[in-house]
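Support request, priority: normal
Reporter: lab tech (M.K.)
Component: structure prediction queue

Hi team, I submitted a job for SnoaL-like domain-containing protein from Sodalis ligni yesterday, and the status page still shows it as pending. I've pasted the exact input below so you can check whether something in the sequence is tripping the parser. The sequence length should be 133 residues. Please let me know if I need to resubmit or if it's stuck on your end.
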Amino acid sequence: MSEKNRRFLTSLFQKIASQGWGDNFMSALHEDLEFNAMGTSPVSGTYQGKEAYRSQLIKRLDDKLESWPVPIIDTMIVDGNLACLQFHATGGKGKNGADFNMSYCWVLHLENQQITKIWGYYDAFKMNELFNI
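Reply from support: The job had stalled in the queue. We restarted it manually and it finished. Here are the results:
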């Protein structure tokens, strides 16, 4: 199971890097996704369901971003249905000029080649700058 999930995530992030987040990422998410944006920022909190994640978090970011960051995986640990991805992103820029290049750490739970849970850790300072806080 671990190797299958490793291949799935590697392929997913390669697609995102070459084609953008959009449908590539959304198609990998389970309908009952639970996305936990950790820390303290304008987007922190728990988003229940794929549609809530899209409308309450992704749309807010899309409204603020001139260009979405391109992810580059630095480290991936996969153990069964759990994975930990440490990645950095380049090319992210806010409409307000904010630098949105940062490092991330996501812990993911996968089932049947879909992401069911994400605990996302990121640079809250850069997120606050994007939202002018």
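Residues 41 and 125 are 8 Å apart (CA to CA). The first strand starts at residue 29 and ends at 37. Let us know if anything else looks off. Ticket resolved.
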